[in-house]
Structures are given as C-alpha cells and as structure tokens.
Amino acid sequence: MTCYERRDLGLLLLRLGTGGVLAAHGAQKLFGWFGGGGIEGTGQFMETIGYAPGKASARAAGLAETGGGVLLALGLATPAAGAAAAGAMAGAAAVHAPSGFFNQEGGYEYAASLGLTAAGLAVAGPGRLSLDHALGHTVNRGWMVPVAFAATAAATAVTVGARSRRLRKAREGAQETLFE
C-alpha cells in the first residue's frame, strides 16, 4: 500500500465516521430520528438555550449537521460541507462552554472535536476515494475553502452573538426582578 493509498483510506475513514455522526445528530433535529426531538422538540429546546426563533434555529442546525455530514461522508463539496458542519459545532460549543471543556461535565469537548475534524477535512480535502475526486473536483477548488469558512464564520458570529445578547438581556431582566 503506497503512502497515497493510506492517506486516501484514512481520509475516507475520517469522512465516514465524522460525517455519519454529524448526519445522525442532524437527523435527530430534523426528523426526530434516533430519539431526537424533531423540529418541534428541538425548536423548543433551542429557545430555552437562547437560539431564537427556535424552529428556524433547529432547521438551520439540523441542515448544517445532516447536510454537512452526508456531504462529508460522500466527499462531495468538501469545503462547504466541512465549513457548515464546523459552524454548527461552534454554535453547539457556545452552549456547552460555560460547563468547561470535558464532556462528562457537560462541556464543549465533543462539539469541538467534531467541528475541528470537519474543518480539518475541509482544508485537507476528501482524498481520491470521494465523489469530489470522481467529479474532477468541480465543487472542491482551493479558493472554495477560505470562501466557505468566511461565510460560515460570519453566519456563526451573527448567530452566536445574537444568542449571547438574548441571554445577557434575560439575566439583566432576572436581576431587576430580584431587586424589585
């Protein structure tokens, strides 16, 4: 087995594993599969953690995870897929950050791991065992990587920033109620 074959096989395994996990998490949000809440239940949950409107947030997170995960697994549109999944995981990490790093304490470790792996795949590319390679890399060009990450970073900053403002206002409102 040559070095290229090993690398391609390694990228395939990373894509299948990471993409599969992301797609399953997204399917929980979108369809209620695997014990998930679907749009309705996930939307209600999203509202409680500061992402509003809840149903739109559930759809956005579910589409980024499901779509990004499926595309990563297939090795198709890898820059966009990896960036979208990384953005969704950044949003999840923001929710878990107050609990610290480790997942067993409710921290952001798991979301960060998935997001960094997706981002790494977007940058490294899908390898030769992919649809991108089979299609001549028409949706996997070098310039697409920074463009995909810039768009995702902007959308994630707006979304997480809006959530932070909502949570801050809610805390301020709760403190005013305590002092009345």
Automatic annotation (TrEMBL):
Q: Where in the cell is it found?
A: Cell membrane
Keywords attached to this Swiss-Prot or TrEMBL record, sorted alphabetically, are: Cell membrane, Membrane, Transmembrane, Transmembrane helix
Transmembrane residue ranges: 70-95, 143-162
Topology with regard to the membrane? Multi-pass membrane protein
Q: Tell me the InterPro entries matching this sequence.
A: DoxX, DoxX-like_oxidoreductase
| Similarity section | Belongs to the DoxX family.
What's the protein called, per UniProt?
Answer: DoxX family protein
Organism lineage reads as: Bacteria, Bacillati, Actinomycetota, Actinomycetes, Kitasatosporales
